[in-house]
Amino acid sequence: MVKIRHRIRYPPFEPSKLIAENIPIVEYDFEIDGPVFPPFRLGKKDSWIVERVIEDDFEVDTKYHGETPQIIDKQRTGWYLIPHPIHAKARNFINFTVIVLLSCLFYLFTTPIQASLGIPTFGTGKIRLGLLDYPILAVIVVPLMVTPIFLRVAANLGDLRRQKSFLQNSPPRPKIDVEKTTTGSKLKGQITFEKIPDDWKSMKVSWRVGILPPARHKVFSALNLDPDGQPPPGLTTALPHHWEKGLDDGTGMGEDAPMEMHDVPGGVFLRPMRIMSSSESSDLEIDGGKFELKSPSGDWPGTVYGGLVRVHWEMIITIERNEGGPLLWVEPLIVEHQEIATLNEDITISDGRTESDTL
User: Fold this and answer.
1) Residues 268, 196: contact at Cβ < 8 Å?
2) Order of strands, edge to edge, in the sheet holding 175-178?
3) Among residues 241, 198, 186, 237, which one has the least CA distance to residue 216?
């Protein structure tokens, strides 16, 4: 029997607002009888980390043996859309609005001091709108505050309209043949489409690797916590209808994607992996063809699907259209491991929102 330990400190939703050292490392020990794939460590011990530790001598097996979790079938396989770019712009505009609002409040707070020092002030008077008087600065700030809301509403309505059109005219599934691949090597294969819609303009293909969120109930189990009790640091309280057992860590809680129709299990927007590395894209003919892609940057292990540690590889076909925005086909890949241990401390942490994903 080979003793194995999986250790993970996974970046929660909006990791930029949290300090990694304040999040507990989740550990899970188990044993395997027979050959196993080599150990690996992604990240640093005092930061976000995904680690597989093998203390005993073992016989190497580079192939993945196991079942594919439901998160792959529900959220990372098939056709997907990209959210309207207004979502990201509106979110950035909110940050600007908050800075302006706080600056105005500070200015109004210090106005009496400025007046006592003989410093001229402006914008502190009143303006009559209808039957009421309003501060002049409010006339400037309030429109800035409500503008992002109107932008998000308009973007959501546009997304719902695109989703409805997409679900009514979903393209056929492409035929994809991929050669056996080992981490660190090139990805080779061929893509074929039976029918090409008239509004398709161009096509490109890439592949990427990343770490999927651990299953929430596995995190609670490994930390010996009650799933209905207080969550550990980094996890939010579970909300009904926003999380499914075994699907992810539940920290997105509906904020990871814009408004979605419920006709497709898992939604129509592709969630980004918060730890991820992508390859360069390669252009294809509009009807497909053969491709050869270099490996994503950095050293990565092959496919791993466990309760806590999930190393996921996928190929993405990006199709530019005349209308409706880009269209994505996501194809999960099973990538074999190298025969040596993997160490990669230089990992990139990304936001958990679909609007922040770059393809």
Assistant:
1) no
2) 175-178, 187-192, 288-293
3) 237
Which structure tokens are listed for 252?
């997105």
- The Cα–Cα gap between 291 and 282 comes to 7
Question: CA 134 to CA 138: how far, in whole Å?
Answer: 7
Reduce the DSSP state of residue 196 to 3 states and report it: coil
Percentage of the chain lying above the pLDDT 90 cut = 40
C-alpha closest to that of 167 among 297, 305, 263? 263
CB-based contact 42:60 (threshold 8 Å): no
Q: Which two tokens stand for residue 82?
A: 């990209």
| Res. 322: pLDDT tops 60 | yes
Distance (Å, rounded) from C-alpha 253 to C-alpha 8?
21
> Residues for the chain: how many in total?
359
How far does CA 323 lie from the centroid of its chain?
A: 25
Kindly report, residue by residue over 179-234, the tens digit of the pLDDT.
999 999 999 999 999 888 888 999 999 999 999 989 888 899 999 998 888 888 88
Dihedral through CA 64, CA 65, CA 67, CA 68, nearest 10?
Answer: 10
- Output the pLDDT for position 358: 56
Split at pLDDT 50, 70, 90, the class of 104 is confident
Tokens of 206: 């890439």
Residues 188 and 179: their CA atoms lie apart, in Å, by 6
| Angstrom distance (rounded) from CA 259 to CA 146 | 19
Residue among 44, 155, 144 at smallest CA distance from 98: 144
**Which residues on adjacent β-strands are paired with residue 28?**
6
Phi, psi torsion values for 157, nearest 5 degrees: -65, -40
